Amino acid sequence: MRKRLGLDILGISNTDQEVIKKIAVKKYGKPSISYFVTQLLWAALKENNYQPDECYLLTNDKSCRIEIRFSEKEGVKLAKLAKSHHMTVNAFIVSVIRNYLNKTPLLTAAEVDALYQSNAQLLRIGRNLNQIAKQFHSMEGGNITSDQITALQNIINIHTEKVGELLLSNRRRNNE
User: Fold this and answer.
1) What pLDDT digit, counting tens, does each position of 134-160 carry?
2) Within 13 Å of residue 137, how many CA atoms lie on the same side as its CB?
3) Which of 8, 28, 90, 123 has minimal Cβ neighbours within 10 Å of its Cβ?
């Protein structure tokens, strides 16, 4: 587990801090003394052949915490996108990354709901087709052939299966 280490460094004046900030800007592009000191410590550890973990485990479920920084403008855009998808910013970012890694489309909560509704309606249509087919078989004639009804039912069944698989894989992926 990665822990926050608080240190007070005695004997560094305000002038010294300003000089350190300028060095940090030159070296890392930002005036963060904390970042500067952290990088110095990591460099010292690497010099001694220490290999840090790639991922810091936080819980027993083997999740990995990674910190990503965005500009304020990007953060606002992400918040708007997440809200439009009915998700938290964190859930949205995780979803985008998972979808990229798994090469699958990003399904928002609204889209998943729409797919469930679509599947339910297709199942109802399929049941109605079954009733029509039964009535068709009990009497002769009509403009629709039983082969056409069977073909339509097969199309509906294939679509329902695909939507079901998509929803199931989305659920499994989000529970990983």
Assistant:
1) 777 777 555 667 777 778 788 888 887
2) 9
3) 8
Dist. CA 93–CA 74, nearest whole Å: 12
Q: How many CA atoms lie within 13 A of 37 on its CB side?
A: 10
- Shortest CA distance to 173 belongs to which of 107, 114, 124? 107
The Cα–Cα gap between 38 and 32 comes to 10
| Spatial contact of 35 and 28, defined as CB atoms under 8 Å apart | yes
Listed residue (106, 107, 123, 113) closest to 159, CA to CA: 123
d(CA 173, CA 171): 5
Residue from 31, 11, 7 nearest 19 by CA: 31
Q: For the chain, count helices (H), then strands (E).
A: 6, 0
98: Cα separation from own chain's centroid: 5
Helix, strand, coil shares of the chain, percent, nearest 5, are 65, 0, 30
pLDDT tens track for 3-62 = 666 666 778 888 888 898 899 888 888 888 888 888 888 788 888 877 766 554 344 455
The number of beta carbons lying within 10 Å of the beta carbon of residue 100 is 10
Calpha distance 33→158 (Å, rounded): 60
